[in-house]
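Batch job 17 of 40 flagged for manual review because the log was empty.
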Amino acid sequence: MSFGFSIGDFIALGNTFIKIYTTLKDSTGSAAEFQSLKLIRGSLATALAEVQARMQSATPYPFPKSLVNAATVLLDKCSQLLDKFDVITRDYAVSLAPGGSANKGRDALRKIQWGKTKDETEELFRRFMEQMGMIQTLLALHNT
């Protein structure tokens, strides 16, 4: 006699509970991942500002106008990617901050939602690194 459930259903249910538990766990779950990505975002913004300052500086190596134009376009794309990251993560900042907000239910919901959003932010960082790689290539070609 079948009740409509199989062993696979129970395994899938167990895996779902494990994912939710891991996501909600403060030390290794969504909150920790979010804080890590915010730190990376800060480092990328610092690197971006450094490259922008170097491109605008005429010393010690003046850059050809074509290189500056190409790098400026790439730097603008990098800025747009960081701005998009800020927009995407704005709603999670309070709930995924250390200690969370005063509303534990809302924090738990945000942590679960972050699991889906995290991939999108990681894609933004991947694209950012591609742009920075192109800038490095331009600078390397200029220095040869």
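Reviewer: the log was empty due to a logging misconfiguration, but the result itself is present. Residues 27-143 form one domain. Unflagging and moving on to job 18.
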